Amino acid sequence: MLLKDKVFAITGGAAGIGRAAALEAARQGADVAITDIVPEESVQPILDAIRAEGRRALYLQGDVSAHETATRFITAIIEELGGLDIFVSNAGICPFHAFLDLPPETLIKTVGVNLLGAYFMVQAAANQMVSQGRGGAIIAVSSISALVGGAYQTHYTPTKAGIHSLMQSSAVALGKFGIRCNSVLPGTIRTAINKEDLSDKTKEEAMIGRIPLGRLGAPEDLAGPIVFLGSSMASYVTGASLLVDGGCFVNLQ
Ligand SMILES: NC(=O)C1=CN([C@@H]2O[C@H](COP(=O)(O)OP(=O)(O)OC[C@H]3O[C@@H](n4cnc5c(N)ncnc54)[C@H](O)[C@@H]3O)[C@@H](O)[C@H]2O)C=CC1
Ligand SMILES: C[C@H](O)[C@@H]1OC(=O)[C@H](O)[C@@H]1O
After folding, report:
1. For residue 112, what are the domain limits?
2. In a domain, 162, yes or no
3. pTM, entire model
4. How many domains does the chain have?
5. pLDDT per residue over 203-234, tens digit each?
6. How far is the CA of 150 from the centre of ligand 2 (A)?
7. Which of 89, 145, 160, 170 is labelled catalytic?
8. ipTM (interface pTM)
9. Beta-sheet strands, E only, within the chain
10. Best residue for ligand 1 mutational test, from 160, 191, 243 (most atoms within 8 Å of Cβ)
């Protein structure tokens, strides 16, 4: 087991990539804390699955774009699970929209959830890890979109580039405390975030055609890389970013 008796916390753990990572962390021996904006009832099956692995599970409902959520989440983790070893900033939104008429509210909301939310959470987690004095690991779910553009994602890709950069700077700021900071850069992974976008079958086929491994990703494809970066197997890895995209990024021609 890669995370035996560690405390693993994740934002946006109610669905998609976050849910897959939370469940894998429990399978790998960690107690798991999840925060998400959805009500606790809808997360109950995930909490039950974590407990079925013999691990403790905690849920806090909250909006990551409100900085108080970060304090509330870390406080709950310490009260109920007694410490924090691995923190994953994953919650995010991607409301696809054209550039020229993008409403300011959509920009403000996307930056608030994706970038400010990640910042508040990572800062709070880092402070807790520093005060514990035993190091830790922070992983942010950035995106291949940190490196490439999207005509309907002009408000989204800068948040993912920002998260990628946040992990690089945090790695520098927190190295002296033994805290490692890395990001994963998923390609296109089938989740609720892109269900509507991928309902355009012509677009979906074109996207699959660009991927050397010949398929879109599944949430579970991210679970292993996230657990690996959180584990002692990655003890000399910090400031790094790991593309998890089936080879899409390197497929130029
Ligand atoms: N699915 C994909 O193709 C890719 C996803 N990503 C990133 O992966 C992360 C997870 O996304 P997915 O699992 O794909 O989507 P998802 O929609 O399945 O999961 C996102 C989770 O974040 C939660 N969430 C949304 N707004 C929130 C808020 N204000 N406060 C707290 N929780 C909130 C949602 O309730 C949901 O549980 C996001 O940061 C996304 O940008 C990155 C690259 C590709
Ligand atoms: C939600 C999109 O399918 C997805 O988000 C990303 O960050 C990827 O680059 C895809 O565009």
Report:
1. 7-244
2. yes
3. 0.98
4. 1
5. 999 999 999 999 999 999 999 999 999 999 99
6. 9
7. 160
8. 0.99
9. 7-11, 31-36, 57-61, 86-89, 136-141, 179-186, 241-244
10. 191
